[in-house]
Specification:
Elements: H1 2-12, H2 16-50
Helix pairs in contact: 1-2
Length: 51
Amino acid sequence: MISNLVYLQGFSVLNLPFAATLSLIALIAALGSLVLMKSLTGRLEKRLAIG
């Protein structure tokens, strides 16, 4: 959904700064979710290893 909006803003409307901002927000959200999942799985692994 966001990729379609980025494409429309970048190539159809030629609003490149807005498209770049949307892309950066999507990238940060994806990386943030990966970091969060890594920390949660690390905690779960430690809990299961001890118990």
